[in-house]
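Dear colleagues,

As part of the handover before I leave the project, I'm documenting each prediction I ran so the next person doesn't have to rerun anything. This entry is a single chain, and its sequence is reproduced below.
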Amino acid sequence: REGAFLGTLHLPLEYAGKYKMISEAMSKETRHLNDTKVELDRRVPGALGMNILHIHQNKKEFVMKYCPKKIKKIRDSETRVKKQEEWFKSIILMYKSITKMEKKIKALNNQLESAKDDMPDSRTALQALLEDGADINAVNDDGFTALMLASRNGHEETVKALMEVPKVETNKVNNYGSNAMHYAAMYAHSEVVWDLRKIGRVNRKTMNADGYTPKMLAQAEEKELAEAKRKVWGEETYKNGKFKLVNEMGPKDDPDSAIYNAFGIHDPDQVEPEKEWKPDTWRISKIPDPACKRDEPFTEKEYLKRWYKAYKKIM
């Protein structure tokens, strides 16, 4: 169970350190790649099927078709052209980043395959434990199995390794009536949720002792976080003015402070907060990844989407 909690059961004993380092780097790079692709497709629908050389050759038409309306509406022609050029460069940079990440992932995968070829008979930590008589379905005092613990902490590779064992009970519930999917959903590990559903055939309709299915639990966590944010906003920011807002200067905004405006933002004392909280209202609202699987912190929107992605995988 300790190996499941730490996410080390899938590691080959002879080269565990190297395997863990490479596989984690691959996973992190793959997540970054997928996020970049989603963002690019959001900004330019169908972009992933376009040729970058063709885009360069038809730059004017591309910009006119896909550049955001707010840039097209800028009246000053010099400012508009400058913003369009900045936007175009950001899109091309995303294309180049995708190519670079795909090459890096391929190189990392080659390193992993090379390590496997050098030690083809290496056992994983899980295989060694099972050969020594370990019970795959053993539980702790609260009824947690290894699969539940790995799912709770988002260790996808360990989850997959556990589900490959024929005797594993994927639908086992603990003292609280929860199965592994409840914990993957509760902690917003959408990839693990998907694996549990498609590989482990975990029952997504199981209700725990509190009457929650995995989907309901993910939705409740998302709602609870949003409500807490709204409460703090309404009481501390809107009513009491405890927290100041940092708003970026728009091209048509009137200046309100020489010092702040020089940095491209409004004077916080002059910014009136909205009555209702919305994600990313605070520019400085960044949230570190609780699973420690990405270097860059989440924006509030991205953080809340983690639970949305999780319960969408359950449906």
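The chain has 14 helices and two strands. The two ends are 29 Å apart (CA to CA).

All the best with the project,
I.
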